[in-house]
Amino acid sequence: MSQRPSVIRQTILTPIVLIAALLVMAALTYYFGSRAFNRTAVEMFINIMIVVGLYAFVGNSGLLSFGHISFMCLGAYMTAWLTIPPVMKSITLKGLPVWLLHTQLPMWIATPISGFFAALIALIIGRIIMRLSGIAASIATFGLLGVVNNIYSNWDSVTGGQGSIVGIPPTMNVWTGWIGAAVAIVIAYLYAISRSGLALRATRDEAVAASASGIDIVRERLIAFVVSAFIIGLAGALYAHFLSIVNPGSFYLRTTFVTLSMLVVGGMYSLTGAVVGVVAMSVLIELFRNLEKGVSFGSHTVALPNGVQEIAIGIITIVILMYLPTGLTRNLEFRWRGWPLQRRLQRPAQTALKELN
Length: 357
Description:
By secondary structure, the protein is mostly helical. The chain is built from 17 helices and six strands.
C-alpha cells in the first residue's frame, strides 16, 4: 500500500495532458471553426466518451465486447423520456409509466440519471455475462446488443419502434462535449488506478496467479463492466441531445465496429490510446466524408462512391492489427519521467499484484 502514491504521481499526467489537449481543440473549434466543424468536434468528443468507456472494460479486462453500444442506446432513450415535453410524450409514447409521462427534467439532471440507468442494467446482466471468458463472453455481449436493439425497435408504445423520437432539447455544444469527454477520462483514470483496476489488469495477464492471490475475477470484471456502462450511458444521453432525435438504428452494428476500430487503432490497453485513436479516426472519417460529397477541381467535381468511408475504416484497422498490434500509442501512457510516452500497460500483472499486496 505504501507504493500507491508513487503510482498516482507517475500517471496523473495522463488525464491532465489529455484533457488540456482536448480543451485547446475545443477552444480553437469554438472561436475559429465553422458551424459544421463545431458539430464534427462535438461528435468527436462524444466518440471519445464511448471509446474511453470501452477502454475501461476492454483495456483492463482483455475481454472484447461487442455489446457496449447497447448501453449508449439505454442512456439515449432514458434522457429522451426524461427531457421531452409531457405533451409530446403523451401522443407518441403512451406506454410510458404515468410518472415518467409527466416528468420533464433539464439535461444536466437527466444525463447522470441516464448513466446510472445504463449502469444498473449492466449490473443485472453483467452478473451472468461476466462468468464467461474469452470468445464466449464476447459472443454473449454481441447477443446483448441484438436483444436491446430488438426490444427498442419493436416496443412501439415506449420507444417509438423503428421510428425516431423527436423533441429532445438540442442543448449540446462544443463546451458541453468537452466537459463530457473530460468526465469520462477522469472516471476511467480513477478506475484504472484503483485497487479494482489493478486487480482486473492482473487477471487479464496472469489469471491463474491472480486467482491464487485471492482476486475474485468475476467481481472485478463486473465492476469494470458497470463503470464502462455508466460512461457510455452518459455518452448516449449527450448524443441524444446532440441530434435531438433518437432511433434504434443509431446504436447498432456500424457504431459498434467504428468505435471498436478507434480503440484498436489507438491502443486498447491505454487511456491515451483510446483518445488518440478517436482523434485520428475522426480526422480520416471526416476526410472521406468530404471526398464522398465531392471535391471541385475547376469546372470538374470528383467524388468517391458512397461506402468508401466504411471500407477505409476496415482497411486501416486491418493494417494496424498487422503492423502495429499495440496501436498508434503502442499501449503506452504519459508519465512524469521519460516524456512523453513511457508507462507500459501491456503486461502490468506483476506490478498490479505487488500493489494489491
